[in-house]
Amino acid sequence: MTTSPAEADTDVVHAQRPRPRRGVSLMDAGPPIALVVLFGVFAAMSPGFRTFSNVQNVLDAAAVLAVVTCGISFVLMMGSIDLSAPGIMGASAITVALLVANNRNDNDLGLVGVLVAVLVAAALGCLSGLALVVLKVPSFMATLGVSAVGLGVATLMFAGVQPNISDAMLEGWAVERFLGLARLTWIALACVIAAWLVQRYTRLGRYAFAIGGAEEVLALSGVRVAPYKVAVFTMAGAFYGLAGVMVTSQLSAGLVQAGRGYDFSAITAAVVGGTLLIGGRGGILQSTVGVLLVTVLTNGLVQVGVSPYWQGGVQGLIVVAAVAAAVIPQRRRNQVTK
């Protein structure tokens, strides 16, 4: 029996959709395994490290860094670099300190002051995104400039007099506990869950991965990439702003240098956890494991008596090793066999 050309055209063979690869790769499993091993080593070396109270201290100490890392992870997933955290956190810290009950003025806005501080931080993050997509400034330069702007704004508001807060609600974040953990730790956990939901179930999270993996392909498919880049930087700024508020809660005062060093620590945590600097791999959960790794390492070094002056050097070596471990397999994959 013969078929006409028209009928033949309708006989289309549909290829099976590729199934997702099951299992966990060694790169994905490496950081959690390293966390368990590191915890076991320090627990064996120091009896004080393995106490329940010290575990609580580790989780509480990781709270601010976890929030900053949530923001920076989305930027890294796009293949960009964000160095604006110190300036944005400083601006947010001074803003909230001057808007809640304090020793400088009669303001007492409570949660409204917190919201305003986060919005100011989001605006600074948006400025980074606009500089990237409109002015075509490389991300590390754009964010470094925005960090300087944030520090300048914070210094102007500081005006030479430290604002000490007396707001019971904000001070309670660092002091009051629920189920053994500080309220700041629960806020950080909520941020991690919210960031993961954005990454997993929203277009913004999916496109952040796609931009880092193959931005040209995404643009050729008709997606306007620029608005999503600006949105990611804006969201990152909001996370930094909340982290600045958290530092203010811990110190009971607003400081211009509230975010000092958090940019490097957050990048360290994200990279160690498996979020690549070149984008397209990793995510919030991986970066959170990295936060725990960095915090456990810092706490463990203190417990075993290592000088704090060595800790920065140790973190730097870990970053270099983590980046090398992530890049070497990709170099081998990209080699052409002749």
**Total helical segments:** 14
Q: Distance N terminus to C terminus?
A: 49 Å
| Class based on secondary structure composition and strand pairing | mainly alpha
Average pLDDT score: 84
What is the overall shape? Answer: globular
Strand order of the largest sheet: 1-2
Measured by DSSP, the beta-strand proportion falls in under 5%
Report the radius of gyration as a whole number of Å: 23 Å
The biggest beta sheet, please? 2 strands, antiparallel
Unreliable stretches: 5-24, 333-338
What's the CATH architecture name?
A: Orthogonal Bundle
**Total count of strands:** 2
According to CATH, what is the topology?
Answer: ABC transporter involved in vitamin B12 uptake, BtuC
Helix content: over 70%
In N-to-C order, the SSE pattern is HHHHHHHHEEHHHHHH
Summarize the topology:
Layout: H1 5-10, H2 26-45, H3 52-61, H4 63-77, H5 85-99, H6 111-133, H7 139-158, H8 168-175, E1 177-178, E2 181-182, H9 183-201, H10 203-220, H11 225-251, H12 262-273, H13 284-303, H14 308-334
Helix pairs in contact: 2-13, 4-9, 4-10, 4-11, 4-12, 4-13, 5-6, 5-7, 5-11, 6-7, 6-11, 8-11, 9-10, 10-11, 12-13, 12-14
